[in-house]
Every structure is written in structure tokens, then in C-alpha cells.
Automatic annotation (TrEMBL):
Entry-linked SUPFAM superfamilies: FAH (SSF56529)
The protein, known as: Fumarylacetoacetate hydrolase
Metal-binding as UniProt keyword: yes
Location of the Fumarylacetoacetase-like C-terminal domain: 134-339
Length: 342
């Protein structure tokens, strides 16, 4: 995962990416990227006494050349972070951390007691969840996405899955595998489950949510449509699910059904929508799923994508090697992923 970030930093962003194009040293650019993707507020440098404290925005990361996975929290502006797994009796793995069952108040108390650090160029962001038990996706869950396909909105949720081998981090690269020629983008809000969930009613479903992150549901459209529909193959190739940059605790988001989300490719806006456009809301998705199977801590539910995917543009557009995908959701953050050759 770290190698992809290194590739992105080893070359200056191209001049066709004005929002990323900067003429500064690679380590400074790395720090800029970190703050840019993690921050949901002001990302400019501030005096130490003005720095915001880290809060309930959880990241998994490495420090420099140390390959020990760590768990931490980051401030809303992306300028500061604190490591929780260093001495707060917190696991260094997010999935194991969820199973520890800390309340939000307990976590805030632990954050107050750990050392706060400035964001620095030695941090390497990992996917905030490394090995979830399930990655469940929802198709056709935005009316605009149905309309662009000339399809009627479904009467029941359309569920399919991705596998965890597809996961990469918020600054990692997406591989354009040789077996596909139609690589597409889909920005999505992902729900992170907090505890075991089975036969849950809609009115109780949100109590089982820990928080939210961004997912980019990369899709090989030729395989998705091949032989009557190979969704599993078309959606689960390696690197086909960047997530991050952080898992934002549900208490930090007033209304998950009123968040702006967008996707740009090489600085050009492709998707722009709002989660209020969901056909099936999060509570209904959880309730429906829990009637069929047991949801567990760390399970991910990708809630669908708005209109603007490449396959249904006129003419169709697909990702190619060198393209840079930026995915953004209000109150959650951003991801920047470059497409590379195998």
C-alpha cells in the first residue's frame, strides 16, 4: 500500500490537475495530501496553540519505515492526530478495537489523555478497516443512477458483495488490470457496523452503526455485464475498493441522509449528489440485511452511488493509467487515488 503513495509522490501531479498541482518538495506534498484528505474544515497551518484537538475520527496508519499497524484519531482540520494504540489500552487494529466496546465518552476521555501530534510526512494512511468480515454493496440506490440507465427504481434493495482483497487506502493506487478495458468510478458513503446485528427493526437499526467512511466502488464494467452479469468478478479485483480516509463516529454527523458527495477525475467533476437521494435509507438497509444474515462489528455497507458514472456518459468514459480519482463526502473527508498499470 505504501508503494502506491510513493509512486504518486515521486512525480509531480500533471498540469491537467490544477487543484493538485504544486511545486514543492515531495515530503511537503505528502503532508499536504494528508491534510487535504483528512480535513473537513480549514486545512491551513495554524499556530500550535490554535491547533484543533483530535476527535472521534479514526485512522489506521504506519509511522515511517515501521511496519507496525497503529490506530489513531485525527482532528477535523486534518492538522493534528493522536495515537490511541500506544498506551490507552486500545487495540492497534480497528476491528479488534470495535470489539472492545468503548462508549464515545470513554473514547473522548482516552483522547484527552494521549499525546497530540502535528500531522507529519512520515505517516502513511492505511484503509481504516483492514479486514472486514463483509463488504456489502447496494446497487441502484439513487434515483439519478437509475434514470441514467433508463431503469425504474427497484422495489427491493439490490445487494451484492466485494471481497476484502479489493481494499486499499485513501491515497493508494488503483490497478488497471489487463483483463479489463472498461474501468469505472462510483463514490459511495460506507456504513461501519458497531456490534452484532440480527433481526433488527428499522427504528432500532441506527443504534448498530459505529460510523461512516468513504468508499470508491471501482468497477470493471465489461466483466460486470459479461455472461449475464459477473458482478463478483467485476467488483472484487485487487485494489477495487479504496476506503477512508477515516471512520467518522456517528456522533460527529448530524444527518447521514443529508451529506454532499462528489467524484472528480483529473480535476473534472463527474458525480455530484446528496445522500438524501437514497431510495433505501440506511436504517432500512440494515433492517433488511439483518433479516437474512448476521451483521458483525466492522462489516461495511456501501450505500450506493449518484448519477455520473462513466459507463452511462455520452459517449462512455473509462479510467485509464495515470488518471487521478478524487472522492469526497461532506463531514467525512476526501480520497485521492491514482490509476496505475499492473
Amino acid at each position: 500500500m505504501a508503494k502506491c503513495l510513493t509512486k504518486l509522490l515521486s512525480k509531480r501531479p500533471s498540469s491537467r490537475l490544477p487543484e493538485l498541482y504544486i511545486t514543492i518538495e515531495p515530503h511537503t506534498f505528502r503532508r499536504y495530501l494528508m491534510r487535504n484528505v483528512l480535513g473537513v474544515g480549514v486545512s491551513q497551518d495554524k499556530k500550535p496553540e490554535e491547533l484543533k484537538k483530535p476527535t472521534l475520527r479514526f485512522i489506521q496508519f504506519l509511522r515511517g519505515n515501521d511496519d507496525r499497524q497503529r490506530l489513531g484519531v485525527v482532528s477535523e482540520d486534518g492538522n493534528t492526530f493522536a495515537e490511541l494504540s500506544g498506551g490507552a489500552c486500545v487495540s492497534n487494529d480497528f476491528l479488534a478495537f470495535l470489539k472492545q466496546g468503548f462508549s464515545s465518552q470513554e473514547l473522548l476521555h482516552k483522547i484527552d489523555r494521549v499525546q497530540c501530534e502535528r500531522m507529519n510526512d512520515r505517516l502513511i494512511l492505511l484503509p481504516p478497516i483492514i479486514n472486514p468480515g463483509k463488504i456489502i454493496c447496494v446497487g441502484l440506490n439513487y434515483k439519478g443512477h437509475c434514470d441514467e440507465q433508463n431503469k425504474q427504481p427497484p422495489t427491493d434493495p439490490v445487494f451484492f458483495s466485494k471481497f476484502s482483497n479489493a481494499l486499499v487506502g485513501p491515497l493508494d493506487c488503483v490497478v488497471a488490470h489487463n483483463v479489463t478495458k472498461r474501468l469505472d468510478w462510483e463514490v459511495e458513503l460506507a456504513v461501519v457496523m458497531n456490534r452484532k446485528c440480527r433481526h433488527v427493526k428499522c427504528k432500532d437499526a441506527m443504534n448498530y452503526v459505529f460510523g461512516y467512511t468513504i468508499a470508491q466502488d471501482i468497477s470493471a464494467r465489461d466483466w460486470q455485464k459479461r455472461n449475464g452479469g459477473q458482478f463478483f468478478i467485476g467488483k472484487s479485483m485487487d485494489t477495487f475498493c479504496p476506503i477512508g480516509p477515516a471512520v467518522v463516529h456517528r456522533s460527529m454527523i448530524d444527518d447521514p441522509h443529508n451529506l454532499y458527495l462528489k467524484c472528480t477525475v483529473n480535476g473534472e467533476e463527474k458525480q455530484s449528489g446528496n445522500t438524501r437521494e437514497m431510495i433505501f435509507r440506511i436504517d432500512e438497509l440494515i433492517s433488511r440485511l439483518s433479516s437474512f444474515l448476521t451483521l458483525l462489528p466492522g462489516d461495511l455497507i456501501l450505500t450506493g452511488t449518484p448519477k455520473g458514472v462513466g459507463m452511462y456518459l455520452k459517449p462512455p468514459q473509462y479510467l485509464k493509467v495515470g488518471d487521478v480519482i478524487q472522492s469526497e463526502i461532506q463531514c467525512v473527508g476526501k480520497m485521492i487515488n491514482q490509476v496505475i498499470a499492473p
